[in-house]
């Protein structure tokens, strides 16, 4: 049985087990291979292989075995895994509790859907910068299905998407929902949804399928629903009269502010957009958790749930 005290990494009779070795072990285990771990660590393959080999020699047990084109944990590797995760979480919490926020230097990779980018991202990043001025933030805006994959591949640290994500490795934190509205070109006549194209979210999204099914139920299979992966582009298409739009409430969008699009009510509205902030369980105790708390605060303030603001 392998036993490691999170704060005492030296093994009797041997050299210290390093945090780098623990981190590398965890990445190889989570990503299923040396090659993907080298990409995540920005190291050469020999350097990563050497860390694993040194750790195995120190513990006197094999931790991985080759399976197909990847690496799988041995029985001893599975025994080490929870201890290594505890070490990782302990180190994260030490850094979080002892390092002043203004001195924390790291990179936080954030992915958001366009609804979040349009509604909350600006205020969230401003709050994050005030709290952690030395943190470098990398932002990706993409559709939910792609953000989910990037989180699970560990290309992103935190995602805000149409969630939650159903995966044992993921922690989900609820964000305020965003109301949906119908939009038409400014000053145009009341549209007939049986004849007018409807522009909305991308084809793989829940809102697209729900809106399509509702329109078919009301007006038959001849309805036309155009998917758009970019809300801003979709709103501009509505502004020039290509069709009507079913989009989140975006009061700060230029087309709305300038009156080039306006709301209308055909008698029903799509369901609100349900959003979640998601991160991997291994990120507990890291900067991800206070970042999500800031995002919740900003989102609630914008939604009117927290008059105190962020």
Number of domains: 3
**How do the strands of the widest beta sheet line up side by side?**
4-3-5-12-6
Shape: elongated
What is the count of β-strands?
12
| CATH A-level architecture of the largest domain | 3-Layer(aba) Sandwich
* Major beta-sheet overview: 5 strands, mixed
Low-confidence stretches: 306-310
What are the secondary-structure elements, in order, as H or E? HHHEEHEHEHEEEEHEHEHEEH
Q: Could you estimate the helical fraction of the residues in percent?
A: 40-55%
Rg is: 24 Å
- State the end-to-end distance: 48 Å
Residues in β-strands, percent: 15-25%
Number of helices: 10
Class by alpha and beta content: alpha/beta
Here the CATH topology of the largest domain equals: D-Maltodextrin-Binding Protein, domain 2
The CATH class designation of the largest domain is Alpha Beta
- Supply the CATH superfamily name of the largest domain: Periplasmic binding protein-like II
Organism: Pseudooceanicola albus
Domain HTH lysR-type: 17-74
Family: Belongs to the LysR transcriptional regulatory family.
Pfam families: HTH_1, LysR_substrate
